[in-house]
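Late entry, evening session. Most of the bench is empty. Finally got around to the prediction I had been postponing all week. Sequence below, unchanged from the version circulated by S.P.
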Amino acid sequence: MLRLVVLVSGGGSNLADLLERTRDGRVPATIVAVGADQECGGIELAKAAGIATFVEPFAHPRADWSDRLVARVLEHEPQLTVLSGFMRLLSAEAVDRLSPNLVNTHPAYLPEFPGAHAVRDAIAAGATQSGASVIVVDAGVDTGPVLAQVRVPIHPDDDEASLHDRIKVVERDLLADVVTNWNEETE
């Protein structure tokens, strides 16, 4: 079984979906730990599921914080680390320590709309479609190699919440597919 550490910053809805899929066997992996930069719903979800958790509160300098976070991740000996709603940038050195076994979900069809406000930015730009992507994390902001992505139409009546809800469904499926096929993709 593929050993996963998942990093979150918020409610953990993508984590909840991945946890369900790993537990019922649809995704052949085990979430061995969940980490965060703050106390959040994702940490509470993991605790309730009996999964090891850790919180490494963000602090400057970023490089020192990143080093501490990566040390916490590596304590759990993951074969893959998933950033799922993790809203902090890691230092380039930290990314290198986890690379290439570090992936990120993103609510846009990259390279379109990188960054923390992708859904809002797509609507503001008047785009007719956005999407979801899973990428290998590199030192840039949402610039790593794309592993999987799907287009999601933007409806005329969409607001940020409605579009993001539809994107999350696609994002969850993409992440499940990437994790399921991880060993074949990296060999």
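Two things to note before I forget:
Strands lie at 2-8, 29-36, 52-55, 80-83, 102-106, 129-136, 146-153.
The chain has a mean pLDDT of 94.
Will write this up properly tomorrow.
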